Amino acid sequence: MAEFVRVARFSEIPPGTMVGVKAKGKEILVANIDGEAFAIGDKCSHLRAKLHEGTLEGTVVQCPWHGSRFDVTDGGLCSWVARPAWMKTVMDALYPGFLKGSLPSYPTRVEGDDVYVEV
């Protein structure tokens, strides 16, 4: 049964930044987008890199390893493996579309300075 779990202090996640947290055995990325908390799976669907170690531009996080990009507001896949170019060509040829998937998205709430994620 899903429940809200406290994962972070919101004051420690400035707007436009993200952190990696763990809740009930799941690795989760929590981002502060214009004062609102969002949570998605923290592992890239390509080779499982920790996304919170990547870069965040607007609502899109880019994987630090090969450049796949995901929307932190819903976990949606924005673009698949971007670098190096030869890897993108190989990955596009080998992986069917259904494996190039989105990430799980988790409901969040902020109470006072505490961020809760439903897992």
Q: What labels would you give this structure?
A:
119 residues, mainly beta, Rieske Iron-sulfur Protein, 8% helix, elongated
Provide the spatial order of strands within the biggest beta sheet: 2-3-4-9
Number of helices: 1
Give the overall form. Answer: elongated
Rg over C-alpha atoms, rounded to the nearest angstrom: 15 Å
- Our measurement of the CA-to-CA distance between the termini, rounded to an integer number of angstroms, reads 8 Å
Q: Which parts are unreliable, with pLDDT below 50 for 5 consecutive residues or more?
A: none
Mean pLDDT: 91
Reported for the largest beta sheet, the result is: 4 strands, antiparallel
Count of the domains: 1
Helix percent band: under 10%
Output the CATH class name: Mainly Beta
Helix/strand order: EEEEEEEEHEEE
In CATH, the topology is named: Rieske Iron-sulfur Protein
DSSP strand content:
35-45%
Please give the number of β-strands.
11
Structural class, judged by helices and strands?
A: mainly beta
Summarize, please.
This protein is mainly β. 8% of the residues lie in helices and 42% in strands.
Task: Write a structural description.
The protein has one domain: 3-layer Sandwich (Rieske Iron-sulfur Protein), CATH 2.102.10. By secondary structure, it is mostly beta strands. Helices cover 8% and strands 42% of the residues. The protein has a four-stranded antiparallel β-sheet with strand order 2-3-4-9, with no helix packed on it. It has one helix and eleven strands, in the order ββββββββαβββ.
